[in-house]
Amino acid sequence: MIISDDQVQYESQEEDRPEQDELPTPARVPGGARIRARMAAVQAIYQWRMSGTDLGELILQFAQAGRLRELDREYFETLLRGVVYDVSALEAAFDPFLSRPAVQLDPVEYAILLLATFELRDRIEIPFAAIINEATNLAKTFGATDGHRFINGVLDATARSLRANEIGARK
User: Fold this and answer.
1) In a 3-state reduction of DSSP, which class is residue 132?
2) Please, which residues have CB within 8 angstroms of residue 96's CB and are 6 or more apart in sequence?
3) Contacts of 106 (CB under 8 A, 6+ apart)
4) Which stretches within the chain are classed as H helix?
5) Listed residue (36, 35, 31) closest to 69, CA to CA
6) Cα-flanking dihedrals φ and ψ of residue 26, to 5°?
7) Could you give the CA distance from residue 3 to residue 55 in angstroms, rounded to a whole number?
8) Which residues contact 105 (CB under 8 A, 6 or more apart)?
9) Whole-angstrom Cα distance, residue 45 to residue 59?
10) Terminus of the chain with fewer CB atoms < 10 Å: N or C?
């Protein structure tokens, strides 16, 4: 289900509303619509994992906050639903390449690994190198200081497993 801005009822800003309850207007994020969709998807996966929010409610929250504007909304929902509905299989794909149990991963890095593994497995029209590059950039933006190195290493090994034919063809 894709929720369009036409279907979303926005609350009017009341003067007496406390400042902490107001959501900031999102700044224009650089990059293409798919890059912005990935960024929003990582944030949504993180929120889903930390709060357990129902998927439909989560998408509605993002839409009402204006966080789905200027991005590929269909791709955002494809990523989010693809990850949420198949977490166990996605985790199983990258788990052999972790240096520690998945439950000990930083939640942001975990969300990025889930998203990129979904793309590696299910979005074969996207070159594996592009997926790894995008995930590394997400880790630089949202992750810990050297988290991008960890993400790059795990996804490189995961890609060798999931995309062996594509990698072999490049050699």
Assistant:
1) helix
2) 157, 161
3) 143, 144, 147
4) 33-51, 55-64, 73-84, 87-94, 107-122, 128-142, 147-162, 164-170
5) 36
6) -65, 140
7) 12
8) 98, 113
9) 11
10) C
Residue 143 confidence (pLDDT): 82
- pLDDT higher than threshold 80 for residue 122: yes
Rounded Cα–Cα distance for residues 144 and 97 (Å):
19
Contact between 40 and 71 under an 8 Å Cβ cutoff? The reply is yes
Report residue 20 as tokens: 């902490």
The pLDDT value recorded for residue 93 is 96
Sign of the C-alpha dihedral, residues 171, 137, 79, 107?
positive
Token digits of residue 138 = 């997400």
Give the count of beta carbons closer than 10 Å to the beta carbon of residue 31.
14
Chain center to CA of 93:
17
Rounded CA-CA distance 5/52 in Å is 24
- How far CA 162 is from CA of 89, 92, 111, 116, in Å, comes to 12, 11, 18, 12
